[in-house]
Design brief:
The protein has about 160 residues and is mostly helical. The protein has one domain (about 35-150). The chain is about 35% helix and about 0% strand. The protein has helices at about 35, 60-65, 80-85, 85-100, 110-125, 140-150. The chain starts with about 30 loop residues before the first helix and ends in a 16-residue tail after the last helix.
């Protein structure tokens, strides 16, 4: 018996040695919103990765289903307003952020509120993610936050992946 390590010895072998042809994934930017949104509250976002419905993200679905009154969309969840849209909750979030990270480098009241609302939503659904870890927020929630804290010129940043 050999004492040599033999990796993958117990892994199942592939049944098909041929090339697996994957079906191309349609780009959501070219699709109608109704083709990928199942909550009926999403709107098309400018970046491909932002076009995601609340019902597609497991962490958001967990939060969506933990309410007494069933709702079809996270933007209608009874907890969204007190956790993410209430200005007093956002003031507390800003104080917590300042305690942990120093000043928030976001200028303008509406923009700061949007930024904090996104942070509160992520914290509510995912918990603490760690430094430079970012997740995409569902289009319906982004839409709801932007309705509450609009940019007067309609200039929104959108999702940015973390820089290494």
């Amino acid at each position: 018996m050999s004492s040599e390590i033999q990796p993958y010895i117990y892994d199942p072998e592939s049944e098909d040695d041929g090339e697996v042809e994957e079906e191309p994934i349609p780009h959501r930017l070219t699709m109608n919103v109704s083709e990928w949104c199942s909550c009926d509250n999403c709107e098309r976002m400018p970046l491909e990765e932002e076009n995601v419905c609340c019902r597609e993200i497991p962490q958001v679905m967990t939060r969506l289903t933990d309410t007494i009154t069933p709702v079809a969309c996270m933007s209608q969840h009874p907890g969204l307003e007190p956790v993410c849209l209430n200005i007093y909750a956002l003031q507390k979030a800003l104080n917590d952020f300042r305690t942990d990270h120093g000043s928030l480098r976001v200028r303008g009241y509406q923009r700061r509120c949007r930024h904090l609302a996104y942070r509160c939503f992520v914290s509510w659904c995912w918990g603490w993610l760690g430094r430079k870890v970012r997740v995409v927020i569902p289009a319906c929630v982004v839409r709801r936050i932007r309705q509450e804290f609009p940019d007067t010129e309609g200039q929104y940043v959108g999702f940015r992946a973390a820089l290494d």
